[in-house]
Amino acid sequence: MQYVIKRMGYENAIIDDERIVYPSGKPSDGAWIRKLPLYKQLYIRISQGLLSIVCETDAKKVERRFEGFRRLYLIIDNDFQKFEELNEKYDVFIAGSDQIWAPTKEIFKPYYYLDFAKKKKISYAASVNSECYPEEYKVPITDLLKDFTHISVREEAGKELLESFLKRNVEVSLDPTLLLTDADWQKVAIKQRSKHPYILCYLLTYNETYLEYARNFARQRNLPLYIFSNNEKYNTFADKMIAAGPSEFVSSFRDAFFVLTDSFHGTVFSILHKKEFITFKRFKGKEGSNQNERLNNLFRITGITGRFLNEQELHETIIVPIDYLDVNQNLEREREKSINYLKEALAH
Q: What CATH code is carried by the domain that includes residue 207?
């Protein structure tokens, strides 16, 4: 998102929301150390540093690579005491994307509706992630969104829900990852390409049926199965585990022969890199149906069929090669529409 807005000619920054996510301060594994005498603190810190060099865990490796990606590619603003001070720095505020507008006690925070902003406010592809809208949220949300000049969400269901009580037009826009082409994403990918083909598996939910399918799928094609995760319970199924950050994530999809995933963004990057893939259904029936909806919406937009399958459908569906000429034309049309929305919202 930041890259797209900068390419339009606008300087911009991501507002650090750590103080919203961790109102009592970010939890630290080393809090107990600070209670010790200084000489003991120094001894432990040096020991931990040497140990991390010799024996870095996959989790620490991932954390380090994410932090390196942030420093290299993202402009993040944390130089303020109160959010209200940001009105002196910026002319426009954008809310989005992801599930920041879910009407639940766990997620609802006025910050995600830019309650602190006194300047122009718009949203881009914010997600409601709900099949129905609880009555108790309708009045406060209407008040919080009344000053937005333009509103866009990520799913048709979210558009219909908000329009039902806001009584104003709401647009549907592409997830920001889809505003960039595969060529754009290569700028942040690992440059060195894999020398050998492999099957890539990326799951958000541990599911042994899908993992068994992935392992058998790879064996039938005489290819190794790479699983993108740092969770040790996947080791039984994987020929290789990939514990990595955003750059490695992008390159792992770029270099894969075939992708098996249950993830929305796993599907997105499979499509961006023109891969053959299967997306496993994580939810059954009405359970998580709104999360299924964003994938259904993606398949409607691209025109891809027969790739969003549950456990039974895996063995009943014949996989037909994807016509990426049509897919890319469909995607480019939606990309242009979303970028035009953003241009208009920023300019007026």
A: 3.40.50.2000
Structural domain of 279: 191-332
- Average pLDDT, integer, range 253-262: 98
Last residue of a domain, one of 142, 173, 204: 173
Q: What is the largest CA-CA distance in the chain?
A: 66
* Over residues 169-197, mean pLDDT: 95
Report if residue 239 sits inside a domain: yes
Same domain, 325 and 210: yes
Average pLDDT over residues 290-313: 89
331 CB-near residues (< 8 Å, 6+ apart): 178, 271, 301, 302
Q: What is the pTM of this model?
A: 0.87
**53 pLDDT more than 70:** no
Banded model confidence at residue 19, pLDDT cuts 50, 70, 90: confident
Any long-range contacts for 171-175 (C-beta under 8 Å, 24+ apart)? 171/341, 172/297, 173/124, 173/125, 173/337, 173/338, 173/341, 173/342, 174/125, 174/301, 174/334, 174/335, 174/338, 175/97, 175/125, 175/264, 175/265, 175/268, 175/294, 175/298
User: How many Cβ atoms sit within 10 Å of the Cβ of residue 318?
Assistant: 5
Number of domains the chain is built from: 3
The verdict on 265 and 208 lying in the same domain is yes
Q: Residue 22 falls within a domain, yes or no?
A: no
Note the pLDDT tens digit of each residue in 107-160: 899 999 999 999 999 999 999 888 789 999 999 999 999 999 999 999 888 999
Would you tell me the crossing angle of helices 289-302 and 156-166 to the nearest 10 degrees? Answer: 110
Residues 146, 235: one domain?
A: no
